[in-house]
Amino acid sequence: MKSDFSISHPWLGDHAGSERVFLELLKIFPKSDLYCLWADQKKWKSLLEDENFYFSYLNNIPTMKKNYRKLIPMLGKHAVEQLPTVTSKVHISNCHGFIKGINVSEETYHYCYCYSPIRWISDQKSVYRDSLSGAAAMFFDYIHPRIKKWEFEKSKQVDQFIAISKFVSRRIKKYLKRDSKVIYPPVDTRFFKPAKAKKRDGYLLVSRFVPYKRINTAIDAFVRNKKNITIVGSGKIDYPNVQKYSNINFLANLSDEKLRHLYRSSKALIFTSVEDFGLVPVEAMACGTPVVALGQGGALETIKNDESGIFYENDDHHSLNDAIERFEDLKISPDACRDQALKFSSDRFAENIKSTIKVAG
After folding, report:
1. Would the pLDDT of 253 be above 90?
2. What is the tens place of the pLDDT at every residue in 116-156?
3. What are residue 77's phi and psi, to 5 degrees?
4. Measured between alpha carbons, how far is residue 122 from residues 7, 159, 171, 174 in Å?
5. DSSP at 186
6. Residue 295 and residue 301 in contact, taking contact as beta carbons nearer than 8 Å
7. Would you say 193 and 338 are in contact if contact means Cβ atoms under 8 Å apart?
8. Please, which contacts does 74-81 make with residues 24 or more away whose CB atoms are closer than 8 Å?
9. Which of 44, 46, 102, 267 is the most buried (most CB within 10 A)?
């Protein structure tokens, strides 16, 4: 018997933002058939044992765990096309890459919950290309137009796009020439909530340490303003002698409980990157903590200026420090931050998804 729902997801590696959405979709549509290119067998052991998954041949490559971020861009197109054809009445591709290209039957209605068109062939092309040289650059130049054409053609087979933000919706229109409805991703506002009578001291930044996250802008600002900041994340910090600044503290590999404690006990979150949505600011606001954010991207949709945070205009330490000074003169209430975050709760997400994704007839 043909099942009503199925869900596809690019890969299951870390428990990151898109994986949280995948799990929420599975709660809304339990017992769906699931399609995936590859999964980390240890990290996702219980889910893999409980659910009905269809995997691509990439799941059988022993070195995938170490190399999936390198191999999937090269092999993803072919691997997606080798997955079994979806025959459920409704299919949801939870997509930030190739998975929207999964083959579905003519009777299947295909919704794509889209985080972005493939970044390295759209708005981030120059960033990726400039990081390559030699044979890798030549291969990029060869594969780029082919993947771009493939994604554009495959997007025509999606019946309805759902974007994670207005920011992404505009990008879908620009690169894929498709309209999309906006449904914001869910944030666990039951877990991320304020604590009673917590003293707030110092600033907080939570991010992976990669160039486009603009961590150095925050470091530049706090080197100059001498205020305390805790920076949580992983990766390499490319900033000269950063360890000599006693007011800048680095932490890594924190549990959700320890991260929640930092949200609750910080004066404000510093948010320096341009994100398609940005879960971190909403998690902070859910804990009653305001946000000082670069006024670009998804932050403009999640943060209410002067009520749950404040924006700075330019990506430099002058602009950020000016905003911090303005913030310290404001009185932003934890309740206002919490109320803003609740607009992006799991309950709100489920309500919006259920009202949009239905079995016809």
Report:
1. no
2. 998 778 777 777 787 778 888 888 888 888 989 999 999 99
3. -55, -50
4. 25, 21, 9, 9
5. P
6. no
7. yes
8. 74/143, 76/10, 76/37, 77/101, 77/147, 77/150, 79/37, 80/37, 80/56
9. 102
Measure the CA–CA gap between 52 and 8, rounded to whole angstroms.
12
Task: State the Cα–Cα distance between residues 323 and 343, nearest whole angstrom.
Answer: 25
Higher-confidence position of 239 and 93: 93
Residue 183 identity: I
Tokens of 207: 């991010």
- 213/209 Cα distance (integer angstroms): 7
Cβ proximity of 172 and 178 under 8 Å: yes
What angle (nearest 5°) sits at the alpha carbon of residue 213, between those of residues 76 and 263? 110
Q: Is 46 exposed, middle or buried (0-12, 13-18, 19+ CB in 10 A)?
A: exposed
Helices marked H in the chain? 17-28, 45-50, 64-82, 125-130, 134-155, 166-176, 215-225, 256-265, 279-286, 299-302, 317-329, 334-341, 346-356
**Which amino acid is present at 41?**
Q
What is the C-alpha separation between 318 and 321, in angstroms, rounded? Answer: 5
User: What length does the chain have?
Assistant: 361
Q: Does domain 203-344 have CATH number 1.10.580.10?
A: no
Quick one: DSSP state of residue 343? G
Residue 80 to residues 57, 100, 105, 252, 282: CA-CA distances in angstroms? 9, 9, 15, 34, 33
Instruction: Report yes or no: 310 and 271 within 8 Å, Cβ to Cβ.
Output: no
Rg (CA), the chain: 21
Q: What is the pTM of this model?
A: 0.89
* Architecture category of domain 5-186+346-356 in CATH: 3-Layer(aba) Sandwich (3.40)
DSSP string, 68-94: HHHHHHHHHHHHHHHSPPB-SSEEEEE
Strand partners, 109: 90
